[in-house]
Amino acid sequence: MNNILEIKNLSKNYYKRGFFRREVSARALDGVNLTLTRRGVLGLVGESGCGKTTLAKIILGLEPADNGEVFINGKNIFNADAADKKDIKKTLSAVFQDTYSSLDPRMTARRIIAEPFLVHGVLKTKDEIEKESIKLLTSVGLSKEYLDRYPHQFSGGQRQRVAVARALALKPKILIADEPTSALDVSVQAQVLNLLKDIQEKFELSILFISHDINAARFLCGDIAVMQHGQIVEHGPANSVLENPQTQYTKTLLAAVPRIFSPLPERERAG
Amino acid sequence: MTQLLEIKNLSVSFYKTKVLKSLSYNLRAGETLSIAGESGCGKTVHALALMRLLGKTARTEGEVLFKGENILKFNEEKMRGMRGRRISMIFQDSMSSLNPVFTVGEQIGETLLAHNKADKKTWRAKTLELLKTVEIEDGANKINRYPHEFSGGQRQRIMIAQALACEPEILIADEPTTALDVTIQKQIISLLKNLQKKRGMALIFITHNLAVAGELGGRVLVLYAGQNAEEAEAKDIFNTPKHPYTQGLIAGADVKPGLKRLPVIEGAPPAAGEIFPGCPFEPRCPKRMKICSQKNPPVFKAGASSVRCFLYE
User: What dihedral do alpha carbons A135, A137, A141, A145 form, nearest 10°?
Assistant: First the structure.
């Protein structure tokens, strides 16, 4: 099977709570179909409030869905038994936008990276964990001297590297990266994008890259899906979506990217 | 050509931390200047210094000449007549800059009343006119609404209306589009561009995104570690960037299809106030020379650009 992640007809509403009835206050996802191929990178782009993060949360099991199905390795994650669920959790990992809130400020990098090992009981002895942690840190471009630092002692880019190291700890197959570069300094964003590309190849990951930065998606992603009001309005290979957009919304989105670096071809730029 | 604003060796320090190091630039009436830099480079502190909005812990040195008068020497009463009237400012976070318990009409009207640009009879009509200027439809209905009833882009428009109320000669926009989506960002930028052209006011646009500065046009001043790295016309910055830092930023942002790796600037920007014996960019610079770690370069002329880099000595 070539698709590691399949999302079928997924819907999610957020409700306003009333006394006697529930009112739909936001239709976060509205019949979303998406597939992530094995070792593929799928970019999910769209503006804030379009449902990108809701989708990530549902895949990660952090939010229930109203309707639809999510398959990981062919298994429906909504009716998986306990053993399957544990497997799924090892298969999936995530990196978020805000590293300050996704890394515990009271833990050193050593503990942050070791936690997945302890929770899943993968490695038990201190030596094994230490060795593996150093290996992970090196693979994200940090040296072992950083092991005993706390999150606030890292720069923004380095903190994101620690978060990536932790995400890789259990050798996941799928990485959900929700706006991993948005909070970083401009001159550091490219470093983290390169890192994601490197680890994707090295760890043979499939990545769902959620971003509003179309240039970042263009660099990293083989496929791109454009989301608007909880629906996928366009989905296809990055080149065709970006060079030859079919829907008005994608065109508007591309046209809004500041012109100097606009991914639109020359003739469109002139118009 | 007469200068509207001349900034000479403006430095700001908080206790022993020098955040802004001897910044100088000029601004002509009606001109657009984008100030681009990363977090901690001093771009917002510089704007607050111009508005004299820094707290008592900040020590400001140098001169800020507005039409030849040093506003750093103004007393508070005189300064109150400047703020909002001659120099206005809009901020990134419109939700915290607007008061949640007053209607937007009251808040725009307040500016008019405070500067005697309107009285109790005329403020409403003038406020409606301002809402129209910033392209908010159905102003008569919107004027009685509260900030939370508007979207982020609409709120930013209301802030612009408020800032324009007294027809200032300079508008400082501090990252006004950073919290917005790209499509809304484009609208706000074109609104600012139009208003600036129509009203002939000077615009200082602060951003961390060089591409946005390019979209705006005019002149661009790139800040790094509290000092100017490069100053040039927008088109020159993008076509022939001079400073290695600017070169790196532009190379990293210009993504071509099929690119295997993004060109990067190694390392991270320094924390605010970090002290360097030489050029602050030297630790990250791919073109560093021996002299770079010993002396902070002065500003050199390179064609039409000004660059703080020994490569152009």
Answer: -110
How many CB atoms sit inside 10 A of residue B117's CB? 17
Name chain A contacts of B262, Cβ cutoff 8 Å.
190, 193-194, 219
Determine, for residues B255 and A263 on separate chains, whether the beta-carbon distance falls below 8 Å: yes
| Residue in the block written with tokens 């296809």 | A236
* Residue A7, helix vs strand vs coil: strand
Of B34, B19, B73, B26, the closest CA to residue B172 belongs to: B34
CA distance B158 to A199: 45
By C-alpha distance, which of B132, B114, B131, B112 is closest to B123?
A: B112
Q: In terms of DSSP bridges, do strands B300-302 and B305-307 run parallel, antiparallel, or are they unpaired? A: antiparallel
As given in the structure block, the two tokens for residue B285 are 């610079």
| Rounded-to-integer distance, Cα A140 and Cα A160, Å | 10
3-state SS, residue B243: coil
Query: Of the candidates A2, A11, A1, which has an alpha carbon nearest to the alpha carbon of residue A70?
Result: A11
Angle B175-A48-B267 from CA coordinates, rounded to 5°: 55
Rounded CA separation B44/B90 (Å)? 11
Q: Is A141 on the interface with B (CB under 8 A)?
A: no
Q: How many C-beta atoms surround the C-beta of residue A41 within 10 A?
A: 24
The CA–CA distances, whole Å, from B200 to B193, B203, B241 equal 10, 9, 29
Beta bridge partners of B35: B206, B221
How far from the centroid of its chain's Cα atoms is residue A261's Cα?
Answer: 24
Question: What single letter denotes the amino acid at residue A2?
Answer: N
Strands (DSSP E) found in A174-229: 174-178, 206-211, 223-228
| Token duo for residue B177 | 């589009």
Distance CA A266, CA A61 (A): 43
Contacts with A156 from chain B: Cβ below 8 Å: 268
Cβ(B107)–Cβ(B183) below 8 Å: no
Query: B 151-180 residues with CB below 8 A of A?
Result: none
Q: What is the pLDDT along chain A (271 residues), one digit of tens a residue?
A: 689 999 999 999 988 777 777 777 778 999 999 999 999 999 999 988 899 999 999 999 999 999 999 999 999 999 989 889 888 999 999 999 998 899 999 999 999 999 999 998 888 899 999 999 999 999 999 999 999 999 999 989 999 999 999 999 999 999 999 999 988 888 899 999 999 999 999 999 999 999 988 889 999 999 999 999 999 999 999 999 999 999 999 999 998 888 664 443 343 343 3
A215 Cβ under 8 Å from any chain B Cβ:
yes
- Give the 3-state secondary structure of residue A68: strand
Smallest Cβ–Cβ distance between A187 and the set B186, B248, B261 belongs to B248
Measured between CB atoms, which of A186, A215, A258 is closest to B38? A186
Chain A interface disruption, residue of B185, B205, B255, most A CBs within 10 A:
B255
